[in-house]
Amino acid sequence: MAHSNVEINKQGKRSILGGISVTFAVVLAALVLNFLTGLIPLDKLQGLPIVMPLVLAPIGAIIGFIGYRINKGKLSLWGIIFNIVMFLVPIFYNIFGTLIFEV
Length: 103
Fold this sequence. Notes:
single chain; mainly alpha; 3 helices
């Protein structure tokens, strides 16, 4: 019986860490999309949604990596991938903004 409790505990911990990692990426993606579209006016945040992925995406990727190391799961793997993509979004935004708009 003790063996099954350990498996359940590992499974729950993995899914929680993977879920947190994916949540980081989804929230960052929502803020960046809102910044680009202006759907919901967040005047107080100004350019912060473009800068936040540089700080928060690595934290989400690390959380996903820890969840993946504990027990190989797809949710944690997707969290790592999405956070890496979100980390690259502000970099590409600045590169393409400079090339296209010459700012």
